[in-house]
Amino acid sequence: MRIAAVSDIHVLHDGSDEPLLAKIKERVEELNPDVFVIAGDISDQLDILSDSLARLNVKNCVNLFVAGNHDIWFEEGDGTSSLEKYSRVIGEICRKNGFRHLPDAPFELESYAFVGSTGWYDYSFKREDLGIPLDNYERKEYRGAVWYDLLRIDWPMTDLEATDLFNQRLEYDFSTLSDNVEHIIYVSHHLPFQNLTVYKNKLPWDFYGAFMGATSTGQIIRRDRRVRLAISGHSHVRQMINTDGIVSLTAPLGYGRPNPEHLEKFVKDAVVAIELEDSTVKIDDFVSGDLSTGLPYASFRN
Length: 302
Ligand SMILES: [Fe+2]
Ligand SMILES: [Fe+2]
What we know:
By secondary structure, this protein is of the alpha/beta class. The chain contains nine helices and 14 strands.
C-alpha cells in the first residue's frame, strides 16, 4: 500500500496558488500511490475548496479528504454552518471532484481500512504548568490572543461535547469495518497524540497548544490493535512519532510560499510518501519542522 499525504495547504483566495496546486498534483502522480490523503485546511470558502480539490485530484488512485477546522469555519455570506459543512456539504464537494470525504464513511482496500475524522480538542494538551485557568481555554482567549475557532465555528456544542461526539463516531467506524480488515490508517485533522504538539516556551503559542487535539482520541486509536498509522494536520510544525507501535505524523505544508524556483523542493518536502506493507510502515526522507520558516507569508490568512 503506497500513500501520499499532505495537509494544511491553506489555498490563497486570489488564485496565486495555482502553480502550487499543480506542483502538488505532479508530485503525487510521480509517487504513484494507491491512495492520496489530504488531512484538512484547504480553505474556509467552499468555492475555493471545490476548485482546489478539482485541481488536486489524481487519476488512477483513491483521493481522500478529511476536513480541517478552517474548512468548516462557517461562511459569513451564505450562512453555511460548521455542522452543515462537516456533515453534508464538504462530502458533496468531495464527490463532485473525485474525492471521498473520509468522515462520511471509512474506505476499505483489501486488508487495509482508512478511517477519518476531523477530531477535535478538549484542552487535554494544555500545559498545566502555565497555570492558565480553564475558563480561558473555554473562552479561547488569553491576554488578548484569540483561538480563531471562537469566531468561526458555530455548532451548538462545547469543545468537550464535540470531542466526545467525534470519538464516539470513531469507535463506531472501527466497529463497522469488515472482518478482513487487518490494518487501519487513521486520518484526522486534529492530533490524536500530545507528543505531536510542539511547545515553544512562549505565549500565546503554548496556550494554542491546548487546541491541537485530544488525548482521549489517541486512547481509542491505541486500543484498536489494527491501527498502524495515523496521519494528521493542524499543527504547522511537522512531526513523526511512534506511539505503542503506531507511526503518527503530521504533514502540513503551511502558510509560507517559496519563490517559484524553490517550489518543486518545497512541495517535495511537503508531500509525505508512505509505504505500508502489512504492519510495517516505511517512510523515507520525512521532513520535520516548519516548512514556512524563513519564507514570506503570501498574505494574511487565519
Ligand atoms: Fe492549518
Ligand atoms: Fe487546522
